[in-house]
Amino acid sequence: MLFPTEQFGIVEAGVYRSSTPFPSHFPFFATLHLRRVIFLSPEAPTRLVTTFFTSHGVEIVHLGIGLPGWATAGGSWKPMSEEVVKDALEMVLDASVHPVCVCDTSGVHQVGVLVACLRRLQGWALNSTLMEYQSYAGGKARYGNEQFIELFDESLVTLPRVLPEWYLTGVAAVAAEREELSRLIDTGRVDAKQERVDGATAGLKPFEVFWYSEDAPLNGPRGEVAVLEEPLRETETEL
Predict the structure, then answer these.
(1) What is the pLDDT of residue 66?
(2) pTM to 2 decimal places
(3) Coil, helix or strand at residue 111
């Protein structure tokens, strides 16, 4: 019988997340046929872990060396530096070395921040990104982690030459949606107050009613932009 770690998850095709595995998890990890594993914790992986991965031809990258400790007085509030996140993201996005797995001791903090920063690169909304982070962290979620995710500068990342198909497809879809939203704004089909209009009243399909507004409050009632069936005229009022 195969046993994944408690915090194991599929991020995207060929990209996995996990806490540091124990020997009981090794048979499961052998089925993933990994080419690279990235450790983000300050603690080095044990000899058992390194022996297992190297014996299966998996490259081990330990980026967690020198990370600040949360318990250290006067230490940085950041879970890890921007440089570590930048390096890890560039490795994760390099499709030439997939499948890849990112690990830390708990599978929650450094890994959660890294995956969230990847979602930022993919164009995810911030509230969706934080919801995914919190779904893994549960009661262990840290405000400092969430602040780091929100403030992370995606422009620091240099995209590798060989990008995975899921990244290219996702970024293209986000760009197309933003272009469509801009067109709807230009043609007057978006409510100026950015409030939702009932789909049945507007004659829209359910998925056509919801548009994310980057200017709206994160969890406020105006986080959706309504799409009207016909362009607004100066004499018309909101439904």
Answers:
(1) 56
(2) 0.77
(3) helix
